[in-house]
Amino acid sequence: MTANAKNGFLEAYQEWQNVRLSNPVNILMLNLMPTKKTTERQFLKAFNHMKQDVSLTFAYPASHSFKNTSAALMAKSYTKFSEASNNNYDALIITGAPIETLTFDQVDYWQEFKQIIAWSHHHVKQSLFECWAAQAALAVEFNIKKVNLDEKTFGIYSATEIDKESPLVTGIRKKKELKIPQSRHTTIEHFSGVKVVASNAEIGPMILHAPQINQTI
């Protein structure tokens, strides 16, 4: 089907062609990556392969000071989370960010991030957290600490174990068919409250699910 960008840099610069949609899934995406346009394009292209139309709204935390994009340009192209929060959505996606080596309290929008997590419980049907956002969500929701690695985990890893009962891996016939890129300096060692959907024997969990709060991590 088709994915539309309701706002964002690709839409502002007419680099993404929107079309008329039929009963789309409405997704709010907090794009924390410095490469805004690249990240927008990656998600829009991926959603183009869904069986249902998708409408994507891009948002940002107002408490964040952007290094690569001016505040005026962000306000023109994106929606402040505080404004987006007035609506309900089918899903929330929060991307990663290149701040993994910082403690959570060192992140300038940490308090707003926690507010967004709390808001999501009542205003979205499903949430997806990627990379740094996954570690941050685990810390907020389950008090699961991130642990620094001696060496960076980097590469594309195949799942050596998957939960075949999980709908998140529907259609995957063999474990090694699921391959996930990894680029991180931290991991988690001890956790509870979440289900492991996919893992690799070398690097540990790759997909976690918390069905009780409709979160995929």
If you had to describe this structure to a student in words, what would you say it looks like?
By secondary structure, the protein is an alpha/beta fold. 24% of the residues lie in helices and 31% in strands. The chain has helices at 9-12, 36-47, 71-77, 81-84, 110-123, 132-142, and strands at residues 3-5, 25-30, 54-60, 79-80, 89-94, 124-129, 147-158, 161-162, 179-187, 195-200, 204-210, 215-216. Strands 1, 2, 3, 4, 5, 6, 8, 10, 11 and 12 form a ten-stranded mixed β-sheet that branches. The longest helix is centred in the middle third of the chain and has 14 residues, at 110-123. The chain starts with a strand and ends with a strand. The relative contact order is 0.13. The mean pLDDT is 91.
